[in-house]
Write a structure and sequence with these properties.
The complex is a heterodimer of chains A (about 290) and B (about 270). Chain A is mostly helical. Helices cover about 60% and strands about 0% of the residues of chain A. In chain A, strand 1 and strand 2 form a beta hairpin. The chains are: A mainly alpha (about 290), B mainly alpha (about 270).
């Protein structure tokens, strides 16, 4: 009986101590908040060294680096204060894909992170292409990598000739969908237009990958915004304010040319008071737009 | 009383297995199952749809790591513990020869490993089955390989053969060395075995023929563990030729036979007086 009582006492004491420790931890964190900034540090940057350290667990190490790349990208994208974003993104993706050469999602997702214009992404389409080319050297018949290089050339670099070349290369791979060839032709013939972009994004929207569909949805909204900006710009140009007055939405609304404040899905469009140039707001989720075509 | 050789080996093997159960080795199976189930939920939140790939990677890696620890930490004590406890005298006074004793010890630990690997495999397939059937058909079609993929068994077979080699190495060292030294040596061989493919290409960095031949000799002498690693291929659904599986398994078995013969020879010549 005594043993049972002593045991109960010991367990109670242990719980009490643990409770006290938790309480002290909460007090310390409240009074002396520690710097939450991510330590931008990679101890090992050499893929070869890491592959050796990982022994035969390189695929698992790749998973760890992939998760870290996702956290790094997400954290930097959401951060409002960090001055230099995405510094570790390419090294992390390079390590991930060196440890697991067949990590398809790391190449494809990584290319989107890298190519998207800053601050939405790293603004490095060159690195995105180099990452995808690394994927091609691992799996030369994977049409998706060729397609993604074409897309980066088209969407971010606006290089229609290169985009057409890569779309054609994608179409030549086994199992490639038959819509790639017409897209390549369209790039060459029309020099790339929003119609082609919309078609391409609508094809991507059919993808099984949720993240690709999200990216395509955003791309389609950006094209809608570009169309809207063209329409608004036409109205602004045709309805200049009286001499000495700035360009403004209020003037156009008052004169009955616009029913209300024009917005994309996230924020009102901006108008430059001096020049009348219409653009998407930096506060909008669609900012920055991929460039007018 | 005369007993058959096979029966003697079986008796020793069953005792090793029972001892490992008494030593709570199966507890690691519970840890493994909890690790997989817990991580399957957490990983799903972190990996942008790569949970099945990561569960496969984690499951295969954990099978290899848990098995490695069992093989090394039990393997090193198989013989030396009996010698230290002096229980070797009573065992060898029974109608069991020294080779039967060594083979029995080895078979017992391999049996323990086989049960471990089998249970871990079942746990991994159960988690993968759950993940597969909770995802939509469209989502599943984006995976490199099916969630429940029988081709993963190829990697598991090679992991098991690799663990059998590690056990044989640990047993070999255990016949003439202390447990601590045996553990260090076995672990050292395991690490070197992952790099020895570099020794094969030594001629590319030196012109000395002697050095090249020495490196080539060490390459053949040290077990080539990197050859047993097909985890990445099976996880991505890439082909692993049956011929490769057969040759690598046969290589492993031949290497194990050589180690066991060496262990028997050393143990048979030991004087316990």
């Amino acid at each position: 009986m005594m043993i049972g009582r002593n045991l109960l006492l010991a367990v109670g004491l242990a719980c009490l101590c643990l409770g006290a420790a938790i309480g002290l931890q909460v007090v310390r964190d409240t009074r002396y908040p520690r710097d939450q900034a991510e330590l931008a540090l990679m101890y090992v940057r050499s893929p070869e060294a890491l592959r050796r350290i990982a022994l035969s667990f390189d695929a698992l190490a790749a998973d760890v680096y992939w998760i870290r790349a996702l956290q790094h990208y997400g954290g930097d994208r959401l951060s409002k204060t960090k001055p230099h974003k995405y510094e570790l993104l390419y090294p992390l993706l390079d390590l991930t894909t060196s440890l697991d050469r067949y990590f398809t999602i790391a190449y494809r997702f990584g290319a989107i992170f890298l190519s998207e214009a800053y601050p939405g992404g790293a603004g490095r389409p060159d690195l995105a292409i180099s990452l995808l080319q690394k994927g091609i050297s691992a799996q030369p018949t994977k049409w998706q990598y060729y397609h993604d290089i074409a897309f980066v050339n088209y969407w971010q670099l606006h290089d229609m000739a290169s985009a057409a070349k890569w779309f054609r290369a994608a179409a030549a791979q086994p199992g490639a969908p038959n819509w790639l060839e017409p897209v390549a032709v369209s790039m060459l013939v029309q020099g790339g237009d929003r119609k082609s972009a919309r078609f391409l994004l609508q094809e991507i929207l059919k993808s099984e990958e949720a993240w690709l569909r999200r990216m395509a949805t955003r791309g389609l909204m950006q094209i809608d915004a570009l169309d809207a900006i063209d329409g608004l710009q036409r109205i602004v140009n045709e309805n200049r304010p009286p001499a000495g007055q700035p360009y403004s939405w209020q003037w156009l609304i008052r004169s009955g040319k616009l029913p209300g404040l024009p917005t994309d899905r996230y924020a009102p469009f901006e108008i430059d008071p001096a020049t009348g140039t219409v653009s998407v707001s930096p506060k909008s989720e669609l900012f920055p737009l991929p460039g007018k075509r | 009383m005369r007993i058959s050789k096979a029966h003697a080996i079986r008796c020793v093997a069953v005792n090793v297995f029972k001892e490992s159960v008494r030593d709570r080795v199966p507890y690691n199976l519970v840890i493994f199952a909890v690790l997989l189930i817990a991580s399957s939920y957490l990983i799903g939140q972190l990996t942008a749809g790569q949970d099945v790939k990561i569960i496969k990677d984690l499951g295969l890696a954990a099978t290899a790591v848990f098995g490695l620890f069992i093989a090394i930490f039990i393997g090193i004590g198989l013989v030396s513990k009996e010698v230290e406890r002096r229980s070797i005298y009573s065992i060898l006074s029974k109608p069991i020869s020294r080779p039967q004793f060594v083979l029995g010890k080895y078979a017992g630990l391999v049996l323990t490993l086989a049960v471990n690997v089998a249970v871990m495999t079942i746990a991994m397939y159960l988690v993968l089955t759950y993940l597969t059937y909770t995802e939509s058909v469209e989502f599943r079609s984006a995976w490199d390989a099916p969630g429940v993929d029988p081709r993963m068994l190829k990697a598991i077979v090679l992991i098991f053969v690799q663990l059998m080699i590690v056990t044989a190495i640990a047993l070999f060292f255990s016949t003439f060395s202390t447990p601590l030294l045996s553990a260090a040596l076995t672990f050292g061989v395991f690490i070197v075995g992952h790099f020895n493919a570099d020794l094969k290409n030594f001629d590319k960095i030196t012109e000395s023929r002697a050095a090249v031949w020495l490196a080539r000799g060490v390459y053949h002498l040290v077990p080539d563990f990197s050859a047993f690693d097909v985890k990445t291929e099976v996880v991505h659904g890439l082909p692993v030729a049956n011929g490769y599986l057969v040759i690598t398994t046969a290589y492993g078995l031949a290497y194990i036979a050589a180690l066991l013969i060496a262990a028997i020879v050393i143990f048979s010549r030991r004087d316990f007086k």
